[in-house]
Structure formats: C-alpha cells, structure tokens
Hints:
Family: Belongs to the V-ATPase F subunit family.
GO molecular function: proton-transporting ATPase activity, rotational mechanism
Protein name: V-type proton ATPase subunit F
CATH topology: Rossmann fold
Pfam family, one: ATP-synt_F
Helix content: 25-40%
Keywords: Hydrogen ion transport, Ion transport, Transport
Mean pLDDT: 85
Strand order of the largest sheet: 2-1-3-4
Radius of gyration: 15 Å
Amino acid sequence: MAIHSAIKGKLISVIGDEDTCVGFLLGGVGEINKNRQPNFLVVDKHTSVGEIEECFKRFVKRDDIDIILINQNIAEMVRHCIESHTQPIPAVLEIPSKDHPYDASKDSILRRAKGMFNPEDMK
C-alpha cells in the first residue's frame, strides 16, 4: 500500500490556523485537485464548525489524501467527526498551533492507539 501511495502521489492535507497552513504551504504541501478543491482549510474566527466538519469529511472521502493534519484546538471542535473516522487511511494527526500547545490527553487517535497495546508489552 505504501508503495502504491508513493507512486500515485498521495497528499497531506491541513486544517489549521493561518500560521500553520502558511507554514505547510511554504513547505510545498499545497495542492488543488481537478475539481478545484484545495487540500487545506485556513480556520479563523469567522469559520463555522459546520465548515470545518464539511471540510474534514471531504478530506476523508478524497482518495488522493493519505494524511490529515489538524490543529488540536480545531480538532476539539469536530471531535465527534474525528472519533467516527476509524479507517487507517487517511491518518488523522493532531498537531499544536502557535497559541495552543499539544495535549496528549485530548488526542483521541493517540488514546485509541494506546488502547491497542498493553503497557507491559511496551517494556
């Protein structure tokens, strides 16, 4: 699967604040597909929770996206959508933003991954 993804050129998508999105766009992550849909969403104070939910669901359905990066504070707004996504691809990774540090206790994907392993197995 990883070889297939690399050959086909899968994307990383970003849902985040302006600083996060600009940073990733400057790093070359930005892309617009054949339907003229970008692989990023800049969330500001005017962005509704519905818009974020719609974007997340759209990214999950796109077959050209393998990873969805989302600022953790934004992930909190659409936690129910993230928790309902159970497929391994696209992988959903919660990342910190400039104004909101990462809190592992809020990351539902990390909690799910930890639940797969017994702490004794990790020693």
